[in-house]
Amino acid sequence: MADSEPFWRALKAEVRKQGVPQRDLARRLHLSPSALSELLNGKRTSTPDWDVVRKVVEAIGGDVGYWRRRLEESEAAESARDHNTGREPAGCVGCGRSAYVSPPPPYGDGYLHSLSEDTRILAGRDERLLAEMVAIDEEGLETPPESMAFRNQFDRVARRLLADLAEKARRACHPHRVQLFCAAHALLVVEACIKGPFLPACWDVGVGAGELVEVSLGQGLTSVPPLGADMFGPDHHARVVQYYDGVAEALSLFLSPDDTAATVALYESRVAELAAVCQQLCVWITLRYGTGADLAACPPGRSRTELERLYGELGARRTGLGGLETLLRTLARDAPPAEWPARLAEMHRHELARPLSSVGEAGESHPGPRIPKLAQGYVNPSYRAAIHTPDNRPHIDAWWHTRPLHQDIQTLLAGHLTAYPTLDQPLIVLGDPGTGKSLLTKLLAARLPPTDYLPIRIELRTVPADAGVLEQVNHALHRLTQRTITWAELTEASPGVLPVLIFDGFDELLQAGGTDHYRYLQDIADFQRSSATTGLPVAAIVTSRTVVADQAAIPPGSTIIRLEPFDEERITRWTYIWNTVNRTHPCRTDLAARHPELAPQPLLLLMLALYHSIEPDAEATAPMSRVTLYERLLKLFVRRQITKLEPGLRPTLLEEKVENELDLLSVIAMAMFNRGSQGVSATDAEHDLAHLRDPANSATDSAPWLLFGRFFFIHEARATYENGEDHLWYEFLHATFGEYLAARKIAHTLASCPDGGGYDALLFALLSCAPLTDRTQIIDDLGDLLPATNTNTDPIRTLFPRALYPVEHDTGYSTGPTPVTYRHACYSANLLLLAFARGHVLRFSEIAGTTPDPAANWRIHATLWKSQFEPGAWDAFTRLVGTVPTGGDIVLRLSEHDGPGLTAGRRTLILHDPDIEELANPALPVWEALGDVTSVGGETDSKGRDTFAGRDLVALLLAPPASYGDLPARYERCLKVLAESATRPGAERMHSAISHRLAGESGRLPGAFVNEALEKLTEVMEVEDETRIALLACACRQLVRTGAREALARSISRLLDYSPGQLRYLTARSTELALSELYRLFRAPRPRTWLLRTAIQLDLRGWCTRHAAHILGEDSPDLLTPHESDYLHPLLTPQPSDPASPPPTPPQPPPPIPPDPH
C-alpha cells in the first residue's frame, strides 16, 4: 500500500532512534521477525491496524496520540486519492473478489446479531474501525460521565461505519449487499437505544453498555424476518414501538411511553437521514418491514423526491410485474452483468412480447380479436400468505379465507428476493387452474436484473419426472439454451449473482402419476441447503395447484402464498386493457356483474372477453342462463378449434364434428365425476371413451383422447420420464365446465330412454358409479336441461321400478371392482334425483310403480342407499332430499335443508322405520337443543360402551342425588366434552344444564371438585345471565367452605366480567359477607346488578333490603325477571340512598388464609 509507506518509514525510524531491537519488538507483538520487518517497511497490502501501531508505539515509549493522528492523516490522504482518481476495489467490497465464494452469516429466522459481527460487515477491511467498536462494546457504565463518553464514541464510530454505505452497496454482490443492509439496520436500531433515554435508564439500574447492546440486538427487529412472518402484524411504526418496549422490559428499565416515543423518533430520523444518502437502504427496509417504514420521516430533498417517484411508479405499475423490475433495479449492483446472466435475461424477456394465451389463434382468414401481450395484459393479482406449520391446511379454500388479503404481490416478491435466501425453504405459490401461476413465473424470470440474479425456469411437465432436482435443472437449461451447459458451469461463469430456480407446475408431477413425489419440495430444500454449504446460496420458487398442496411434505417455515381470483376492480382494469387492444372488437364492461362465477378467474375472463368480442349481441337484452351461456361458449370455442385444424368444412359436417367433440368432453366430465375427482388420467379417459360414447354418434377419431389438450378450457398435466414415457392427466380449468358437460351428457342420454337397448345401458353406466348429490351443481344444471315433466312420457316412471334389477345390454363399464348392490343403489337414487331435479314436490308413489305400500317400498330403497353409500355421501343425500310421510306415501322435495341438532336424526329418520322412530322420538329434544354437540366424545365407559355428549348429559341430568357413586365422573365427562365443543351450536345449552345441576347440589359434592368444576365452567365460554347467577350463587356458597380460594376468586372475577387477575384472593364466613365484600370491590352497575340477583337466588333478604334500591334506581323492570321483581317488592323501602360503606357495625373479616402450598 504505497500511500502508507511514509507513515511506516517514519515509525521505523522512531524504533531505531529509541534503540529497541526488532527481535524483542517482534516477541512482544507475537510476530515473526520477518513479519515485523515486512510491517515496518510498509509492504503489507492491507490497511494499517491501529492495535498493532499502538503496541509498537507503547513498546518504544512513544506518544500514542501523536502517532494516532499521523495514521488518520495517512488514511485520509489515501481515501482522497482514491476519490479523485475513481479507483475502486476489484469486484465486491464484501468479499473482495468478482465471485462470491463463501456463505454469509445465516441472517433470517433464529439468527441473533452481534455488534462485532455487524461492525465487521460494515467496516470491511478497516480493522481499526472494528477494533474501536469492539473496545466501545466492552466498556462499562459506572458514572454519568462515562455514559456520555460511551454515547459520543459510539455515535462517532457508527457514523463512520455508515458514511459510505451507498457506495459499498452499489459495488456489493447480492449476498454481501444483503449483509450490509442487515448490519446497517441493526446499527441504527442500537444507535437509537444509546442516543435516547435508554442509556441513562441503564445507568440508573446498573446495566452495562454491553448488556444494553446485546438485548437490543436480540429482540427480533434487527434480524431479517422470514418472508410473510411480518406481513400480518402491525405496521412498521407500531412494530418499532413494540420492539423498544420489549428492550425496556427485558432490562427492567423504568421508562415512560414518552421515552419510548423519543427513541422511536430517533430511530426513524436516522433511517430517514441515511435514506437521504443511501436510497437503497430505505427501499430495502420498506420491502422487508412494510411500506411507509421511513419515507414519511425522510427530509425534503433529492432523495425524498426520488423515493416518492419510485413508490409512485410502483403504485402505478399494476400490470406485468413492472413494479418488481423497478424495485430490483433500484437495488441492483452498478456493474455490467456477466455473459450468461445477460443471455438468459434476454431469453426470458422475449416472453414479455408474447400473447397472454394462444386461445385466440383460430385460423380464420378474417381478422379477429387480438390477445394482449404478457407485459401489458397480466394484471397483478392479490394474494394471501402464511408461514407453513404442521397445523396449516393450505389445500383447503376455507382455511385460506382466514388469512389476510394483500394487494401488492410485487412488494412481497421483491422482499423475498432482496433478502438473504432461506437455505432450506422454497417459496410456494398456490392457485386454482387459470389464475396465472405459469404467467407469473414467466414474468418473474423476465423482470429480474441480470446484474444481481440468475433466473432459471424449470417447466416440470417438460423435464424427466423421475429425475433428481439437479438433473431437472440441467435438463431445463438445455431446453432453454439449446446448448449442453450444466448448473455447475453456469453458476461458475456467473459470479456475484443470486440463482433463482423457478419450478413451474409441481401439481403436474403429482397428478400425472408414476413416481412418488411426496418429498419433492423437501428435495428442493435439500438442494438449496447443500448448494449454500458450498458457497452458493440459491432461492427457489415452486408453483402448484391449491388442491394438491396436501399431497407433498412442505418444509416447515416455508412461505406459502395463494393467488386470489380477480376482484371487481381488477376485472375492470383487465377489460379496459382488452378494449384498448381491441378497439374494433371490444368486450362488455360489465362482465363481473353478469358472470360473477367465471369472470374472477383470469383465463375464464379471457374466454368471456373473446366470446363477447366475437358475439357482441349475445347478451344485448338480458343475461343468458348459466346453461345457455356454457353451451354457447363451448360450441364457439370447439368450432373455432376445429376450423383452425380443418378449414373449409361444410356447415353440416362442421356441426357434426362439434357435437362429436362435445360428446368427447362430456365423457371426460363423467369420468371425473364417476371417480370423485376433478381430473382423470389418460388411461382412465381412454377406458371411459370406449364405453360411454353416444351410440348414435357417427363421427370418429383415431385417437380421441389425444384431442383434449388442444382445448384451452382443458388443462393437460404432463409428466415425462427418462424412458420417454409420458403420463397425462386432464382437468377442466373450472369445475363448472365439467359439471355442465356431465349434466349435458345425462340429459341427452335420458332423452333417448327408455329404448330397451343401448341408451338404457348407457344411462345405467353413467348413473351407477356415484350419487349425484356429491356434486349438486350437476343437479341444478339438469333442472334447466331436462324438459318439463309429462306424466305419460316421463322415462323415469318406466326406468325407476326396474332400477334394482339387472340391466339388459350392459355396456360392461366400471371404474373398478364395485359391488352390484352399490351400482344399483346409485342408479336408483340418481333416477329419483332426476325425477324432481326441477324442484317440484313429488310423491314417491308417482315413480315407484304399482306397489300396494309406497312407504314400505321407500323404506326398502332408502335402507339400501344408506347401507351402500359412504357416510359423507349419505349425509349429502339426506341433506338434499326432504321427506314427509303422508297417508301411507312419502312426499319428497329436493331442497337444501338442515336444522341445528338434526344431523344424526336426519340421516336416520329419513328411513321412516317405525322401530327407529319409536326409539328416536324421546331423544329428539336432546338433538334439537344440543345440535352436533351430541356426537362429541366417543370415550368408553366402565361397561365398555362408547359414550357421547348427548348420552353423558342425559345420564348426568337423570342421575340420583349426589350420593350416587359415579356422579363426579359423569360431571368430568360432560365438562371434557364441553371444552372440546365450546364453539359448536348447542354448547351453550349443555353448559347451562351442567351449571344449573351443579349449583343445585354443590353442597353435597366434595368442595375441591366443585371449585375445579366452577373454574372449568367459567373459563370455557361466555355465559348467559341465568347461568351466570346460578354459578355466582354456587361460588358464594363455596367461599364459606374450605378449598382453593384463589380458584374461586378467578371464577368469580370471570362471572362478574372482570379479568381473573383482578381478584386474587377472597374468603368469607357466610354467603352474605361474601356478597358484601364483592359489593365493595365491584362498583360498576352491571356487576352489582348480578350480585343483587345472586342475593335473591340465595334468599338473602337483609342484604337485598340494604342494597336493592341503590342498585336498581329507576330501571328495575328492565334488569330483573318477574320472579325477582316480585321477591323484592315487599323489601324495597322509599329511602333511595345506599350507604357508601358497609353496614354500621360490619363484622370483621377473618385474617387472610395463606395459599395452599400445593
Automatic annotation (TrEMBL):
Domain named HTH cro/C1-type: residues: 11-67
Biased composition (Pro residues): 1136-1158
One annotated GO molecular function: DNA binding
PROSITE patterns: HTH_CROC1
InterPro entries in the cross-refs: AAA+_ATPase, Cro/C1-type_HTH, Lambda_DNA-bd_dom_sf, P-loop_NTPase
Region (Disordered): 1121-1158
Classification via Pfam families: HTH_3
Protein name as it appears in the record: NACHT domain-containing protein
Species, as recorded: Streptomyces acidiscabies
